[in-house]
Amino acid sequence: MVNSKSNPPLLNHFGALSSNSNTQCYEPQSRVIMEECQLPLIDLHGLSSCDEMARKACAAAIHRAASEWGFFQVVNHGISPQLVDKMRSEQVKLFQAPFETKATCGVLNNSYRWGTPTATCPKQFSWSEAFHVPLTKVSDEACYGEFVSLREVMIEFAAAMSKLARLLAGILTENLGHGKEVMDNICDESTCFLRLNHYPACPISPEIFGLVPHTDSDFLTILCQDQVGGLQLMKDSKWVTVKPNQDALIVNIGDLFQAWSNDIYKSVEHKVVTNAKMERYSLAYFLCPSYDSSIGSYSEPSIYKKFTFREYRDQVQEDVRKTGYKVGLPRFLLKTEEFKRRNKDSNSNTRVYIPSITAST
């Protein structure tokens, strides 16, 4: 129920933005029914096969999906349905707590967020609430307060997601000719996150975002969603709806992997749309590097200048504060002339690509 005491005052915030903003700022989502897509489905059992050909075929499928879609789904991923069910049950219990409790009790490292505090107009507003929990705090008893039963399940779930994320990251780096240990050396649990999402039903308009269009500012994200649906992604310059699959987890490439791979892997824009009658739950794991890790492209000539995760995150936050929008990777593209010079001086056989800020990524 939208008026439940457990839900944040989303309607009040959205109403205030609507009345105070320039009407030209609000560009409604299309009412046209979106094309439904089936993401590439990859059976990870092949990675542990004794058959070398089966393993190579699975790794190649991951590489192809990351390059062509930026999104794919995996089955036989090693996370049991029982663990997912337990985590979902605890997640629902947490979000059903009174709003005042979630907002003030400091649970999960005081990471509760709702709506979009930086929004200046309706199209920047997300009709959702979430707990964005650093992995380093998942085992901290002090973070759970009255939600004591959540801790044991969350520790187990976070560990399983972390293991899977590192496995996939290793395959993706190996496919580009590097050792699996590259991501182990770059990524750091202190900057990885587990995010618990809740999208309350939104009966007032089908044109309100559950989560505004964005790309992820990490190496990769693993998403565990329910069967309500609502996830959409940009494919071939149009929005398509992702069909839920109860047996699969969704994996998507983040900005850092796109930069590191020199645009071979794609960080694709995606969003969540609201549902008038049904609430939606999802769980996301974000694989991130240490803040001072240098995110240089794995080969030359590089499309992007080198930057650290801290520099990238700070730039994203500054852009959002100033404009309400994330700019992201275009901020770190090398100037065309510098890129041409590097390409000319390079002895690499890498295919030449002249970047364009307006090009679709």
Structural class, by secondary structure, is: alpha+beta
Helix content: 25-40%
- CATH architecture call: Sandwich
Q: Mean of the pLDDT scores?
A: 87
User: What is the CATH topology descriptor?
Assistant: Jelly Rolls
| Unreliable residue runs | 26-32, 346-361
Total strands: the figure is: 13
Radius of gyration, whole Å: 21 Å
Q: What's the CATH superfamily, by name?
A: B-lactam Antibiotic, Isopenicillin N Synthase, Chain
Family: Belongs to the iron/ascorbate-dependent oxidoreductase family. GA2OX subfamily.
EC number: 1.14.11.13
Domain Fe2OG dioxygenase: 188-289
Keywords: Dioxygenase, Iron, Metal-binding, Oxidoreductase
What can you see in these coordinates?
Helix content is 32%, strand content 18%. The chain is α+β, with helices and mostly antiparallel strands. It has a single domain (10-293), classed as Jelly Rolls (Sandwich). The strands form 2 sheets. Strands 2-3-11-8-13-6-5-4 form an 8-stranded mixed sheet. The chain has a 5-stranded mixed sheet with strand order 1-10-9-12-7, with no helix packed on it. Helix 3 crosses helix 6. The longest helix is centred in the middle third of the chain and has 27 residues, at 148-174. It starts with 9 loop residues before the first helix and ends in a 16-residue tail after the last helix. Residues 26-32 and 346-361 have low confidence and may be disordered. It comes from Corchorus capsularis (Jute). This is gibberellin 2beta-dioxygenase.
